[in-house]
Design goal:
With 483 residues, the chain is an alpha/beta fold. The protein has 4 domains: 19-118, NAD(P)-binding Rossmann-like Domain (Rossmann fold, 3-Layer(aba) Sandwich); 156-217; 222-332, 3-Layer(aba) Sandwich (Cobalt-precorrin-4 Transmethylase, domain 1), CATH 3.40.1010.10; 338-482, 2-Layer Sandwich (Methyltransferase, Cobalt-precorrin-4 Transmethylase, Domain 2). It has 20 helices and 20 strands. The protein has helices at residues 27-38, 52-59, 88-100, 138-151, 156-165, 167-173, 177-187, 191-197, 201-217, 238-246, 258-261, 284-295, 315-324, 337-345, 366-370, 374-377, 393-402, 432-438, 456-459, 477-482, and strands at 19-23, 42-46, 64-67, 80-83, 104-107, 120-124, 127-131, 222-227, 249-252, 269-272, 275-276, 279-280, 300-305, 328-332, 357-362, 382-387, 410-415, 423-428, 445-449, 467-468. The chain has a 6-stranded mixed sheet with strand order 15-16-19-17-18-20, with helices on both faces. Strands 3-2-1-4-5 form a 5-stranded parallel sheet, sandwiched between helices. Strands 10-9-13-8-14 form a 5-stranded parallel sheet, sandwiched between helices. It binds S-adenosyl-L-homocysteine. Residues 155-212 form the Sirohaem synthase dimerisation domain.
Length: 483
Amino acid sequence: MDQDPDRLFPLFARLRGRPVLVVGGGVVAARKISPLIAAGARVRVVARALGEHVEALVSEARLEWIGREYEPGQLDEAWLVVVATSDRTLNARVAADAEARRLWANVVDDIELSSFQSPAVVDRAPLQVAISSGGAAPVLARQVREQIEVLLDEHVGPLASLLHEHRRLIRQRLPELPARRRFLESQREGPVGRRLAAGDRPGAIAALHQALSLAAARPAGMVSIVGAGPGDPGLVTLKALRRLQEADIILHDRLVPEAVLALARRDAERIETGKRAGQHFTPQEEIHRLMVHYAAQGLRVVRLKGGDPFVFGRGGEEIEHLREHDIDYEVIPGITAALACAAHAGIPLTHRDHAQSVRLLTAHCRDSLDTHDWAALAQERQTLAVYMGVSALADFSDQLIAHGRGPDTPCALIENGSRPDQRVVLTTLQHLPADAARFNVGSPALLVTGEVAALGDRLHWFGAKPLRHHPVHAVPAALASAA
Ligand code: SAH
């Protein structure tokens, strides 16, 4: 692309008060002259005869007719030359003289002779859109122009002027650039734009003042990415609660139960963006779009996620997107399922005697299982907290046993952890898939494997007693009976 010899350099030139020579005085010349006059150029015309349009401009003293015959000396003061006669030889002569003086020349309908071209323009002054195909595809350029004409309603120009006239005030009321940018961005579709579209300039000015006071009075729109915890409203942090009570919009996962949503401000609009294994209710891109859409309007958006937003919650991706769109954000952590389920099942994730480390992992499909380092996961005296694992239990236990974890290793499945309907199934690695089926464990459920899981038998305190079909021991059965 950078090698393309026909590629033009786009330029907007300040012509106010500067002489521009136009050679030719017919309709074509007239068409070229009006934008020059609009830009404030001092247009001087050389022509044997004038058409009625140019004639009228001369009589209104909006341009000067400086002669009938072209002479090179007429180029002396000019900054630009426009050549619009039907005499090709004359056109070529003027172009050559201009070239010799390094003066930009446009010869109408002659790309070869022109050193500059005038683009197709969508005029919403002070906003102007100039389109050029470099002469390669004038029809396409015209189509594009028509599309843009439709896209930019007539009031865009007056809106740009209005905002420009009020720029001091706007800067003063909204000194921070992101807030100011969001304010300016929202004006086109807002009441100011609507008043201008209706031709009501005083009304638009009043609306602008009102919108400014509103924007200055309230903090700029932002997104709080909030962890809702496992579902017990008592496990929502104070900070999360505050955000829920200030929220204009709540974008929440399906995992977040009504009991937590009930903490939010009554007027907040709730949008469910939930996903469950295999079923996608809202594509991630749509969630991204909604967050930006609402925050850009100055609204306070809470993106509410089950557990913690940074544990298998795609919080990172959402932040990337907000950064790209210059939207302010914060992250409020929540109690992740592993912590909540372990606590409510009476299973310490680490224990001096049984487990020195804990790993959080996910096992919801073949792909996620294939990427694990099974040898490392199969080591003793460590706890695995497995998210989204209910559908892949057979593969999971096969792999761990194949890599050397004892078949008697204790496991706990915690369904609806921390909620009134919590169920805990205690089992061993070898019986895990069969017991999950036997007790019909459903989503959401978390799997805890490792020596510590056996402690749930004795330490449980919340909800129903753990379910068990086989004996479960913290240490291998042989050693336990020997002791
Ligand atoms: N960000 C969340 C996890 C989202 S992945 C967090 O930090 O907790 C969803 C998985 O979390 C579920 O498939 C399940 O394995 C687990 N989970 C979430 N809430 C749960 C609950 N109350 N009880 C059991 N498991 C839960």
